[in-house]
Design brief:
six-stranded parallel beta sheet; single chain; alpha/beta; metal-binding; six-stranded antiparallel beta sheet; Globin-like; EC 1.14.12.17; nitric oxide dioxygenase; 457 residues; Elongation Factor Tu (Ef-tu), domain 3; Rossmann fold; 3 domains; binds flavin-adenine dinucleotide; 11 helices
């Protein structure tokens, strides 16, 4: 089916932009002290993989020694706060320096890409013609991971999808070194007055701590399964000016669990990978259904909604995601979904309908207007035959259906009950997830019972 372009749509393929040299538009900002260096100097500290050949770090402080015997004292003075660990210090410096970059992030991304391509010419083929946006996304996820090197559980949770996305992009384990050198080179250029030897040292340390497990995971995953599957679009239906329902038939089954998302690449936007959540639980015929909302100014979602046609060939990356219902808990379940965030929620409910003992589950599906509640009819149909499932639609503007709750999702959820004993899954925009998680935390739901995959990086 052909589709008319969206208002203000860009061309089907972005025009090539000059990027193979550091962007000529880069201007030194007022904070910057270091002279501009067009050729990357290697970082002052080598990228050392901890635990392999790492020598003791002089910044780590003295080696532990036997504690001196304290003289007896009636009231010992309060112990001074323990100094931050090197990991905590590195994570803090990563956050602080990244905040300093602020509005210059696009220029930094261009600079980073130029350095990366000069260090590793093969990496050029992994990026589309216009490199700023994918380079910015790559840097953001990398820096986010680096800012958690002091929290191993968070780091592991961030690295897993990152590695999968890198594999879909085609990035190999051997290329991480060049990635790190380009990142540090770009930070040296854009880090401003706060960027000094200590900052550089901390960034190298954080990158090494994050890149080590990433390389290991990439190598392990590389042997396990191919990164990609090809697929054909067999259905494309516009159900609103900014919303499309797509059916995609993979050439071979793509292993995934209900609630997970896949990264996809479409021919109209080569090498711009985006996450999409299948709407149904995995089907025997492997067919995938996606609901795509065109976001304002979005490169890929607009093309998916407006320019996709049946017969298009897509590439699919491996599945990932934190939404799921493990067998280890028998608590009741609360699912809260906004707009197209209903996709993984419907998939999970369909999956639970196949269980012998499904867990009691309440779904709140919210949107601004009734048309946003795309999967409502299917959830209601399921609830009619599955007594463990209750569905509550929520609409901010003008709810026509008397059963629809008015207001925003967090308000409606908190007003409707006590969820402190539930496992909670949240799916939708980052803003909706943040607001709902905050409201539930205030209401007594423990943080470790709230799982979510925000629908944007
Ligand atoms: C785990 C996960 C699952 C997802 N599942 C789906 C899905 O099933 N269906 C679907 O339509 N999308 C889904 N997304 C969102 C999708 O991957 C893209 O991020 C989204 O389509 C925007 O891509 P774009 O290239 O058009 O926008 P970009 O060019 O990347 O961004 C353009 C602008 O839009 C903003 N933006 C990006 N994403 C969103 C968003 N979701 N809401 C509001 N503003 C946004 C950006 O900050 C930026 O300002 C999912 C995302 C994640 C992380």
């Amino acid at each position: 089916m052909s589709a008319e372009p969206l208002p203000g749509d860009g061309p089907a393929d972005p025009a090539p932009a000059p990027f193979l040299r550091p962007s000529p538009t880069v201007r030194p900002g007022p904070r910057r002290l270091a002279p501009v260096r067009p050729v990357p100097a290697p970082p002052t500290t080598p990228m050392v993989r901890p635990g392999r050949h790492a020598a003791p770090d002089p910044d780590d402080g003295p080696a532990p020694s036997a504690a001196p015997v304290a003289p007896p004292a009636p009231a010992p003075p309060a112990a001074p706060p323990a100094p931050p660990t090197p990991e905590a210090d590195a994570a803090r410096r990563v956050r602080e320096a990244w905040e300093e970059v602020g509005p210059q992030v696009d220029e930094l991304a261009d600079w980073f890409a130029a350095l990366l391509f000069s260090l590793d010419p093969g990496s050029r083929a992994l990026f589309p013609a216009r490199v700023t946006e994918p380079a910015r996304r790559l840097l953001r996820s990398l820096v986010l991971a680096m800012s958690t090197v002091d929290r191993p559980a968070d780091l592991a949770a961030l690295l897993e999808p990152l590695v999968r996305e890198h594999r879909a992009l085609g990035l190999r384990a051997e290329q991480y070194e060049a990635l790190g050198v380009a990142l540090i080179g770009a930070m040296r250029r854009f880090g401003g007055v706060a960027w000094d030897d200590a900052a550089e040292h901390a960034w190298v340390r954080a990158f090494s701590l994050a890149a080590g497990p990433m390389e290991d995971a990439a190598r392990a995953a590389g042997d396990a399964a191919p990164a990609l599957a090809e697929a054909t679009v067999v259905g494309h239906r516009r159900v609103g000016w900014d919303l499309a329902v797509l059916h995609v038939a993979p050439d071979r089954p793509v292993p995934h669990r209900a609630g997970q998302y896949l990264t996809v690449e479409i021919p109209q936007r080569p090498r711009m990978w985006r996450a999409l959540s299948p709407v149904t639980a995995p089907r025997p015929d492997g067919l995938l259904e996606f609901h795509v909302r065109a976001v304002e100014g979005g490169w890929v979602s607009r093309a998916m909604v407006a320019h996709t046609a049946t017969g298009d060939r897509w590439r699919l990356g491996p599945a990932s995601g934190r939404l799921g219902l493990g067998p280890r808990s028998d608590r009741e379940v609360l699912m809260v979904a906004g707009g197209t965030g209903g996709a993984p929620v419907l998939a999970l409910c369909e999956d639970m309908a196949r269980w012998t003992r499904p867990r009691p589950c309440t779904v709140f599906l919210g949107g601004r207007v009734p048309d946003d509640l795309v999967v409502l009819d299917r959830l209601r149909a399921l609830a009619e035959v599955q007594p463990w499932l209750a569905v509550a639609p929520v609409c901010e503007d003008d709810p026509l259906d008397p059963e629809t709750l008015p207001g925003t999702l967090p308000d409606a959820v908190v007003r409707s009950g006590d969820w402190s004993g539930h496992d909670v899954l949240l799916s939708g925009s980052p803003g909706m997830i943040r607001a709902t998680a905050q409201a539930l935390l205030v209401d007594g739901v423990p943080l470790d019972r709230i799982a979510y995959d925000p629908f944007a990086q």
